[in-house]
Amino acid sequence: MRVVVAGSSGLIGTSLVAALRQAEHDVLRLVRRLPAAPDERGWDPETGKIDADALEGADAVVNLCGAGVGDKRWTPERKRLLVHSRVRPTEVLAEAVAEQDVPVLANASAVGFYGNSGSKPVTESSEPGTDFLADLCQRWEAATEAAARAGVRVVLLRSGPVLSPAGGLLGQLRPLFAMLLGGRLGDGTQYLPWISLDDEVAAIRFVLEQPEISGPVNLTGPAPVTNAEFTRALGEALGRPTPWIVPGFALRAVLGELAEQVLGGQRVLPTVLEAQGFTFQHPSVGSALAAAVAS
């Protein structure tokens, strides 16, 4: 296939481009600067402009654009950026995909769609939450409407936190564990719907190649764990003790509204992937963490 990837320089995008090429797909990367390589095409989401030949002959577009949700405290300005950096690029790509008759749009989203659902199992048919992140995800997904109206197969990639050797969730936690400061957050009973980077990338490839898959798809490991269980598993993978407890009030003081996402939980299950026969390389959090730490 010829696959066009927006957001190709991020944690997931970099690995996805490499995996698609290893599978002998032809990949073009959309960049917001002047293209500097044969596999790059320019675009400007603010003005809605995309290079004339960017989507020519494309079989699929993968949109991974968006500022990092957990990178900074959620000030009003940061919230606006989180929304705008997702909704506007998605609208532009959805319209371009519709105009150019591209068959598939795989668009990033997040398990934040479901809000804080506690210990109740959550599938793709579950209702959305009501907090800021849930609203953001709903607006993000709704921005694909132009493509859906045109009959494009739209896949909504509701990803959980990705466990990667560099960056992402582990990029924030590993320095703390290295300094023997690892510990559970709050009471530790909140669920974490993790996924390994290998399985995240493989799942995106899978949905591109399976024509019967459309709509929301949970990109999470098959066995979500509580924060306490995750903390123990990460401590074991790193060979570090995890004696500490970070109380909720301390997280709220440091992170503000973002702390509610950390202290809340989602027991999200990858129902669609499993029903379609996807095989996880890392079915347990222990194997996912061991692979990430060893890389």
Beta-strand percentage range: 15-25%
Question: Which radius of gyration do the C-alpha atoms yield?
Answer: 19 Å
Structural class: alpha/beta
Question: How would you characterize the largest beta sheet?
Answer: 8 strands, mixed
The SSE order reads: EHEEEEHEEHHEEHEEEHEEHEHHEHH
**Number of discrete helical segments:** 11
Distance between the termini: 29 Å
Globally, the shape reads: globular
What percent of the residues sit in helical stretches (DSSP H or I)? 25-40%
Query: What's the pLDDT, averaged over the residues?
Result: 92
Number of strands: 16
Low-confidence stretches: none
Strand line-up in the sheet with most strands: 4-3-2-1-5-6-8-13
Question: What attributes does this structure have?
Answer:
8-stranded mixed beta sheet, two-stranded parallel ribbon
Description:
The chain is α/β, with parallel strands linked by helices. 40% of the residues lie in helices and 20% in strands. The protein is built from eleven helices and 16 strands. It has an eight-stranded mixed sheet, sandwiched between helices. Strands 7-16 form a two-stranded parallel sheet. Strand 1, helix 1 and strand 2 form a beta-alpha-beta unit. Helix 1 (11-22) crosses helix 6 (197-209), helix 2 runs parallel beside helix 3 and helix 7 runs parallel beside helix 11. The longest helix has 24 residues, at 76-99. The radius of gyration is 19 Å and the shape is globular. The model has no long low-confidence stretch (mean pLDDT 92).
